[in-house]
C-alpha cells in the first residue's frame, strides 16, 4: 500500500499575499481522497522527530538558533518566511514525514510526503523557503540506522538543489543529481555530483529525452540501494517562478520515467513534492496529484 505523510500543520497561516502557496498541501490531500486515488488508510501523520536525526545533516548551532528564534536577522531574511514557532514546528514535522516515509519505502517500494523537498536548506543556513533539508536528513537517517549505504538523490525541481549539493559535497556515499533551469534561482549555484542546467523554454521533447538517457545510466553506474526523488512541478509552462515549458502531460511523463526506473531496478524511493507556483492553484494541485496517480499505477 502507498503510504503518504500528511499533517494539517503543513498548511501554515502565512501573511496575506505571501507568494508561497501553503494551501496546496491541504487541497492535494482532499483531491486525492475525493477522486479515489487514495483512502484515509494511505495517509499517516508525522510527528516531532528525535533532534539527533536533524543534527546528522545540520549544524547544531543553526538548529538551536532556529528553534529558539534567535537566528541572525540577515540569515533569517534569506529564508523568505516570517519565522515563528509554528513554522519551525511545521518544518520539523515535514522532516519526520520523510523519515517515516523511508521506513515505508523499504517495506513497500515507495512512500511519499505531500510536503518536503526543502532542498535550499544548507548545513548551517536556510534560504528559498527552506529551513531543514528533509531529504538530506532522510539520507543520513538511513545510513545512521544501517538501512542503506549508497543513496541517489534525483532533484527535478526547476531550481537547483543547492543546499543538498552543499551538504553532501564531500560524501561519496550520496550522489546528488539536479536537473534545473540554468537562469533560475539560485543565481549562484553549488556543484552537485551531476548538474544538468537547461535553457529557458525547454519543453517536453528535449526534457524527457535527456531524462530517459540519464536516469537508467545513473542507476547502473552508481548502484544505489535507496533513491530520493524531488518532484517539483515548477517545471510546467505556467509556473510563475520557473522558466521551463513542460506541459502537464510532460510533467507526468517525467514522474513515470523516474518511478518506473525505481520499480524496474527494485530500488526503494521516497518522493517529496517540492515547488509549484502556477497562478491557478488548481493547476498546481493537478500537477502534484499526477505524481501520486503515477506512483499508484506503477507500484500498486
From TrEMBL:
It comes from the Bacteria. Pfam families: Hist_deacetyl. Keywords: Hydrolase. The keyword Hydrolase applies. Residues 18-282 form the Histone deacetylase domain. CDD domains: HDAC_classIV. Belongs to the histone deacetylase family. This is Histone deacetylase. It comes from Pseudotenacibaculum haliotis.
Amino acid at each position: 500500500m502507498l503510504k503518504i505523510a500528511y499533517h494539517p500543520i503543513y498548511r501554515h497561516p502565512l501573511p496575506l499575499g505571501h507568494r508561497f502557496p501553503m494551501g496546496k498541501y491541504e487541497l492535494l490531500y482532499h483531491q486525492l481522497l475525493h477522486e479515489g486515488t487514495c483512502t484515509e488508510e494511505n495517509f499517516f501523520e508525522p510527528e516531532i522527530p528525535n533532534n539527533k536525526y536533524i543534527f546528522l545533516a545540520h549544524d547544531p548551532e543553526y538548529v538551536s538558533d532556529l528553534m529558539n528564534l534567535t537566528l541572525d536577522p540577515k540569515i533569517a531574511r534569506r529564508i523568505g518566511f516570517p519565522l515563528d514557532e509554528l513554522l519551525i514546528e511545521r518544518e520539523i514535522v515535514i522532516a519526520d514525514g520523510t523519515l517515516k516515509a523511508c521506513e515505508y519505502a523499504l517495506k513497500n517500494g515507495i512512500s511519499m510526503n505531500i510536503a518536503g523537498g526543502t532542498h535550499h536548506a544548507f548545513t548551517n543556513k536556510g534560504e528559498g523557503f527552506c529551513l531543514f533539508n528533509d531529504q538530506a536528513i532522510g539520507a543520513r537517517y538511513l545510513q545512521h540506522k544501517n538501512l542503506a549505504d549508497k543513496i541517489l538523490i534525483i532533484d527535478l525541481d526547476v531550481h537547483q538543489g543547492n543546499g543538498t549539493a552543499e551538504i553532501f559535497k564531500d560524501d561519496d556515499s550520496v550522489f546528488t543529481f539536479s536537473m534545473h533551469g540554468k537562469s533560475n534561482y539560485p543565481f549562484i549555484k553549488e556543484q552537485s555530483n551531476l548538474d544538468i542546467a537547461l535553457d529557458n523554454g525547454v519543453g517536453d521533447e528535449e526534457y524527457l529525452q535527456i531524462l530517459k538517457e540519464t536516469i537508467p545510466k545513473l542507476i547502473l553506474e552508481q548502484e544505489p540501494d535507496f533513491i530520493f526523488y524531488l518532484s517539483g512541478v515548477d517545471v510546467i509552462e505556467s509556473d510563475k517562478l520557473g522558466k521551463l515549458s513542460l506541459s502537464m502531460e510532460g510533467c507526468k511523463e517525467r514522474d513515470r520515467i523516474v518511478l518506473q526506473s525505481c520499480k524496474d531496478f527494485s530500488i526503494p524511493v521516497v518522493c517529496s513534492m517540492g515547488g509549484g507556483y502556477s497562478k491557478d492553484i488548481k493547476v498546481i494541485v493537478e500537477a502534484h496529484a499526477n505524481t501520486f496517480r503515477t506512483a499508484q499505477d506503477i507500484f500498486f
